[in-house]
Amino acid sequence: MTGPALSAIGENGWKLAAYVLEQNRLGTTPTFYSSQQTLTKPTLTGHSFQEDASAGSVGVDTAIETFPKTVPERLDRALINLAAVTKHLGQQIKIGSEGVNPLLFAQNSGEVFFIIEQFAQEGNIKGKTTSLPTEISLTAKGLNRAADLQRGLFGPLNKQVFVAMSFDNSLDDVWTDGLKLGIEDCGYTAIRVDRKEHNEDINDFMIAEIRKSKFMVADFTDHKHGVYFEAGMMMGLGRPVIFTCREDQLGKAHFDTRQYSHIIWNTPEELREKLKRRIQATIAP
């Protein structure tokens, strides 16, 4: 690190530490220069490196700029880091008592507690999360989610949305004028297994499409058992499920799902608009 680069760090040393750790994981050892000495060079990883006399050089301000902008992104990238240091199933990962933890993108011990408690609540890790130092390990769910993240299933390139609903002909307009259009209004592609050509067993095909989808919209009108199964599978994968139901059918909802916030609708047009607003409000782009 050059002298000008060192002086440019300011209070962002913890962000730079997270950047270095992540780049080391990706096989890069960056050399830091002040941004005035360098030129921007985009890379396939989405980071903007700074090109100078040596390969891997980067401007300090650009490196800091790659720090996650939102809490969900910080959590996702921290989970990928934890998976990267997990060399065997059930491996214990030591979490120290020091404030800064670049592995978790954490500035202080308070953020460390927040992140590991969130992971524990989601079922992604197991271990003591009430005091430091501690040891945690990734669960099968955590490892699966990290693998999905690395395949880009939660990123902006994944536009597939799985729709679970009754296939009764009386609900055809609910699909064409409500669910499908509401999803497409937000820039996503809606799929229903009975509307997609395939040569596979329908159950295997359905499960594969659920696993490939960024989130699910489950309409419980008619309360088909398959919709409950498909929504449960998506939730088990740790991905968002948006619940919808026609108003006259809501009272028949199973007690296990009544506590979830349902979009209540009466017409396909109303469903389209409400679904569009819910996706925009709750699904990260």
- N- and C-termini, Cα separation: 35 Å
Overall pLDDT level: 83
Number of helices: 10
The level of helicity is 25-40%
CATH architecture label of the largest domain: 3-Layer(aba) Sandwich
Secondary-structure element order, N to C:
HHEEEEHHEHEEHEHEHEHEEH
Total DSSP E strands: 12
Per-chain topology:
Elements: H1 3-7, H2 13-25, E1 31-33, E2 39-42, E3 48-51, E4 57-59, H3 60-65, H4 71-84, E5 93-95, H5 109-121, E6 125-127, E7 134-138, H6 140-150, E8 160-164, H7 172-184, E9 189-191, H8 202-212, E10 215-219, H9 225-236, E11 241-246, E12 262-265, H10 268-282
Q: Could you explain the architecture of this structure?
A:
This protein has three domains: 3-65, no CATH class; 71-150, Arc Repressor Mutant, subunit A, CATH 1.10.10; 160-282, Rossmann fold. 40% of the residues lie in helices and 17% in strands. It has ten helices and twelve strands. It has helices at 3-7, 13-25, 60-65, 71-84, 109-121, 140-150, 172-184, 202-212, 225-236, 268-282; strands at residues 31-33, 39-42, 48-51, 57-59, 93-95, 125-127, 134-138, 160-164, 189-191, 215-219, 241-246, 262-265. It has a five-stranded parallel sheet, with helices on both faces. The radius of gyration is 23 Å and the shape is elongated.
